[in-house]
Write a structure and sequence with these properties.
alpha/beta, 5-stranded parallel beta sheet, 7 helices
Length: 172
Amino acid sequence: MKKVTAIYPGSFDPPTNGHLDLIERGSHIFDELVVAILRNPEKSPLFTVGERRRMLEELTAGFKNIRVDTFGGLTVDYAAKVKAGAVLRGIRALSDYEYELQMALMNRKLRPDLETVFMMPAEQYSYLSSRLVREVAKLGGGISGLVPELVERRLREKLDPGRKLKRNSGGT
């Protein structure tokens, strides 16, 4: 039987529980799943590519068939580089589907042998996006349950470095 490697590309800025839901479920479908962090120079991310990679490596350490990598350029070129036969994409709403369908069709045009597999997130994550998490966190809202504790901690440290310093010096 043929071994199927898939890539799950995205910015993961920050990784959310929705991302982890798809990663876990994708790990049951594919022999190997590469969580591929896109280096996009046109975006100004909250976390560096290195920070996102370290978080995702820590969050996926318990999975035997998952690895984390970074890439730039076309998804189809990266998929060919890692010998992936599929791209895993999450779809939360109809608006996601329209965008993802365009991308999947373009990818098929560029590389006909690369399949796109769409997965819906678990119902409790169907509204969740990294952008919304960043906005809520920046405005001081609660993000518990939206992201893993590790990510919540890193978000708070990044957005409120003064509070981090107080904690480290024994203050509250």
